[in-house]
Prior knowledge:
CATH architecture: Alpha-Beta Barrel
CATH superfamily: Glycoside hydrolase/deacetylase
Number of strands: 8
Oligomer: single chain
Bound molecules: zinc ion
Amino acid sequence: MLNRFVIPVLIVVVMSLGFYAFPARAADPPRNYVALTLDDGPDENAGRVMNILRNNNARGVFFVIGANVTARPGQVRRMRDEGHVIGNHTYDHVDLTTLGAPEIGEQFALTNAALARLNVVPDLFRPPFNRANESVWDAGWDQGMAMVRADCDPADWSYTSARPIRQNVQNCDLQNGSIIQLHSWNAATSQALPGMIRDIRARGFCLGIVKPSTVWNPLHAGWIEVAPSPETDGC
Ligand SMILES: [Zn+2]
């Protein structure tokens, strides 16, 4: 009989003690995250990109081409082992909107099979040239992958020097959840990266990763979110 009263009272007392002993840290401002995405690898330059990300304690999201995965499995293992996110960017880098549903499915499936041999199971994809229609969306969804767009596109692929790439990212109207689209094969992109990461952090953003989400994301019109990475970036 006594326990029916004593135990609830004890719980309330202990919880109150906890409240006073560990007050919420009201001083911490909410953190804003943006993600760096790197398309078209694995490639000759991706190792340099990974060195820079490692030196800056940041993770990237690599959208890889299946044919390149088959050619450079060692780099995919490194992406995997260093905590980067690996997404599907089709097998042959084709414009998926020119294909029928079975061919779209095959482009995703061949890439996922190449990745599965390296114990990587992607849950994200990005269509080449950012060109997609409902069949593309459905085919990705059928294979357990959410589509990822970008709201900051510095057109890094079109430059052979770092300065304009870094400047274009500076000119992006970054917000919490922004996704920056880069290409791992471009030497100028890797040269721009250290300064770009400094700029992004100086603007008050942390570097995060992209994940599927059960909440609709209006910024990207998709079921994705930008979230902290497990070992987030010193933020
Ligand atoms: Zn691409």
